[in-house]
């Protein structure tokens, strides 16, 4: 087995015991964006800086991804026979931004709009080098086990 590696550099802090998403903040209007952007969609300003976003937020809305997304761009298991449905939704990070995200829960009886959520990392697939590729997801608050992540 190889290392754990991020799905993309610069999306979240790596390695990190408590990873955070990396966004942008506009110097002119203070708009927060995710993922990072060089210009602001709110005021068209060109001065943005990278910021680490909060780790917790509120589930704004959600659904279940019940079939494999198109590949590419999807890089996970796209086989209809082995694909496992997953939750996907928007988590509102207070005072920052709503983030479209994978959820660690797909059971409608275990998740509800308005519940508190916390960012974590989840396995996405194993690459050709045998590395476990991880992506960010949000889990119901209190269900994330904190540990130091192994980077490349």
Helix and strand topology:
Layout: E1 4-6, E2 22-26, E3 32-33, E4 48-52, E5 56-65, E6 86-93, E7 97-103, E8 116-126, E9 132-140
Parallel strand pairs: 1-9, 7-9
Antiparallel strand pairs: 2-3, 2-4, 5-6, 5-8, 6-7, 8-9
What does this entry look like structurally?
0% of the residues lie in helices and 39% in strands. The protein contains no helices and 9 strands. The strands form 2 sheets. It has a 5-stranded mixed beta barrel with strand order 5-6-7-9-8. A 3-stranded antiparallel beta sheet has the order 3-2-4, with no helix packed on it. Mean pLDDT is 90; it is low at 148-152. The protein has 152 residues and is mainly beta. It has strands spanning 4-6, 22-26, 32-33, 48-52, 56-65, 86-93, 97-103, 116-126, 132-140. The two termini are 12 Å apart. Strand 2 (22-26) and strand 3 form a beta hairpin.
């Amino acid at each position: 087995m190889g290392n754990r590696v991020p799905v993309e550099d610069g999306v979240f802090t790596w390695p990190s015991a408590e990873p955070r998403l990396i966004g942008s903040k506009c110097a002119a209007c203070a708009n927060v964006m995710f993922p990072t952007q060089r210009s602001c969609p709110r005021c068209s300003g060109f001065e943005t800086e990278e910021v680490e976003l909060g780790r917790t937020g509120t589930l704004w809305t959600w659904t279940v991804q019940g079939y494999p997304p198109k590949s590419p761009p999807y890089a996970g298991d796209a086989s209809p026979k082995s694909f496992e449905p997953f939750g996907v939704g928007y988590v509102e990070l207070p005072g920052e931004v709503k983030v479209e995200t994978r959820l660690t829960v797909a059971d409608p009886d275990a998740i509800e709009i308005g519940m508190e959520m916390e960012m974590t990392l989840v396995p996405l697939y194993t690459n050709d080098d045998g590395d476990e590729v991880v992506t960010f997801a949000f889990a119901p608050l209190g269900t994330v086990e904190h540990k130091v992540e192994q980077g490349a």
